[in-house]
Specification:
This protein starts with 6 loop residues before the first strand and ends with a strand. The protein contains 13 helices and eleven strands. Strand 5 and strand 6 (214-215) form a beta hairpin. Helix content is 34%, strand content 17%. The strands form two sheets. The protein has a nine-stranded mixed beta sheet, sandwiched between helices. With 396 residues, it is α/β, with parallel strands linked by helices.
Amino acid sequence: MRNGRRAAISGTAEWVPQRRWDTPMFGLEAYGKLAREALDDAGMELGEIDGILCTRLGDAPMFAPAAVAEYLGIATNFGEVVDLGGANATGMVWRAAAAIEAGVCDACLCLLPSVPAPPQPGASARTQNWMMGADAWGAPHGQFDAPYGLINPNSHFAMVAQRYMYEYDLEPRTLAKIAVQGRENALLNPRAIFRDQPITIEDVLNSPMVVDPLHLLEIVMPCSGGAGVVVTTLERARRTGLRPVVVSGFGEHITHKSITYAPSLTQIPIVAAADRAFAMAGVEREAIEVASMYDCYTITVLVTIEDSGFCAKGEGARFVEEHDLRFSGDWPLNTHGGQLGMGQGGAAGGMSHVVDVVTQLQGRAGRRQVGSAERGYVTGTGGCMSEQVALVLEGA
């Protein structure tokens, strides 16, 4: 660690993703359970927390941080609602670290539960366009895209894949390899929903075509779940018994919401976010020993590798083909299996990538351990390649 950063991740909590969540929980109840598990893992008490980072909350559509603090029975110096979709987790972590370094607070809970709530009496079922807000009539997407069917994220990411294949030399087998090797990592993760289901490249290519060119096994399975981390001062993290994982560099960049208005279909906002994160951390890309990249689709991973600066533009396919992405390989990626192999635990899906690298840097990955890793890289992708966050994490 070369930049003197003083904010570190200590404890983590992560629930096993489930396709069908048997026991509904109110949002505040889920926050309380995750908070307790993360604090127990860190060896900290609830009274030490003075920062809350959360998302929009069904139980409290207004004043969500205050509602969480009230439910937990604590007073806080920092409260933040993060609304970046798949980049929520990484966005929470850097905001917590920045608040700690600014002296605003000393210990933050970054929590992302995503489980079904008990049905509200008298409420009618309603189909929700949860991601694109097709019913937001005043927004350009609601007026000009949604009426023509551009709603489901599958179609947005398929457009990215189609354009990339047109501009660069990318074969479907290369994208399939990303899914296959992520699944191999998942086989040794007891929390992964696909922990006992290996797949081959042929399996991927023979799975149903959902939106050309993306096959079923290249698309994340939505589940319910939850995950969270404790971010605190480096000094306090050193007292918890776990190896502190310092947030040494971060960057965020947002350019659009709907893919229709993206500046480019093949170059994503992670470029600026990654450049800032690595410059802040003062390390080169070659120093990264384990990476965990948001993988809602296989194309997301390939373009993120490329635009994070690990290879030149247009060389993503070659990079994937030339490297072994398994935890035992020469370029370990998504050693928890990624969301493609673990299941996308709703809003918690992005936090699984943070937990993945923290677990590796703390030496707690068990049979998936990547040696004595010192530095890791994490990304979050929100919306349709629109909201991008990059983190450089280092063991202290």
